Amino acid sequence: MYAKCIKRVLDFILSLLALLILSPILLILIVIGAIAMKGNPFFTQLRPGKINPKTGEEKIFRLLKFRTMSNAKDKEGNLLPDDQRLNRYGKFLRSTSLDELPELLNILVGDMAIVGPRPLLVKYLPLYNEEQRHRHDVRPGLTGYAQVHGRNTVSWEEKFAMDVTYVRQITFGRDVKIILDTVGVVLRRKGITSDTSVSMEEFTGTPAMQEEMS
User: Fold this and answer.
1) Residues in a beta bridge with 116
2) How many whole angstroms separate alpha carbon 74 and alpha carbon 65?
3) Using 50, 70 and 90 to split pLDDT, how confident is the model at 173?
4) What pLDDT was estimated at residue 194?
5) pLDDT value at position 30?
6) Is the separation of the CB atoms in 103 and 147 below 8 Å?
7) How far is CA 213 from CA 122, 172, 199, in A?
8) Can you give the pTM of this predicted structure?
9) How wide is the angle at C-alpha 122 spanned by C-alphas 18 and 146, nearest 5°?
10) Which of 42, 96, 86 is nearest to 64 (CA)?
11) How far is it, in rounded angstroms, from Cα 144 to Cα 150?
12) Helix axes 7-36, 88-96, angle to 10 degrees
């Protein structure tokens, strides 16, 4: 009952209230972001959402975040590496998770939930095995079980296993605990980057999938 009906109603109400309460902060970040990024303060990208049971395909939606990396390019016109485009303002947004606030709009319109597996890249869709794809049986979340158990410091396989575990055991109590744990993670600023990158390394498939596609 909670997962099928109540969860979505709560997501709508809470995201609407959060947008109203946080609107002054959002306006300030929009202005500062426009200055710091020398232009558009927002980052948008197509992401896969919940699987439509009628079509069997993931809904593709446009994720909205605050931009954390500039569009700085080299002499040849190519974008500089991520670590060079991640400026001080971008690092601040990531470390405080303020870059995620615009996703409240994604939650309000129904593309996302407050709690659920994080929406990843569309190009990863062919790389999931059957078990991993079950992470798309529900709406992706602003935060999730994997985000409070390692975030970007655990392997893809571990992260997907946690996502699927959550999908199969959704309860109101678990969602509340994940939200409370998220507050702690954000305050401690844990797991923002992986051990070898300013963001999570790209997913290239599980070993079995890599062999199948080679």
Assistant:
1) none
2) 25
3) very high
4) 39
5) 97
6) no
7) 17, 39, 25
8) 0.88
9) 55
10) 42
11) 11
12) 160
Which of 4, 24, 188 lies closest to 113 in space, CA to CA? Answer: 4
DSSP 175-192: HHHHHHHHHHHHHHT-SS
CA angle at 41 for the pair 37 and 42, rounded to the nearest 5°: 135
Q: Are 43 and 67 in contact (CB under 8 A)?
A: yes
| Strand blocks (E) in the chain | 42-52, 57-66, 113-115, 141-143
User: What one-letter code names the amino acid at 182?
Assistant: T
From the number of C-beta atoms within 10 Å of its C-beta (0-12, 13-18, 19+), residue 49 rates as buried
Given a contact cutoff of 8 angstroms between Cβ atoms, the answer to whether 66 and 98 are in contact is yes
CA distance 211 to 207: 6
Q: Cα–Cα distance between 64 and 45 in angstroms, integer?
A: 7
Long-range contacts of 22-28 (CB under 8 A, 24+ apart): 22/101, 22/104, 25/98, 25/101, 26/101, 26/102
Find residue 3's DSSP bridge partners: none
The Cα–Cα gap between 25 and 19 comes to 10
84-141 pLDDT, tens digit per residue, is: 888 899 999 998 999 999 999 999 999 999 999 999 999 999 999 999 999 999 999 9
Q: Are 155 and 203 in contact (CB under 8 A)?
A: no
Structure tokens at 128: 């999931």
Q: Which residues contact 141 (CB under 8 A, 6 or more apart)?
A: 112, 113, 114, 115, 116, 117, 118
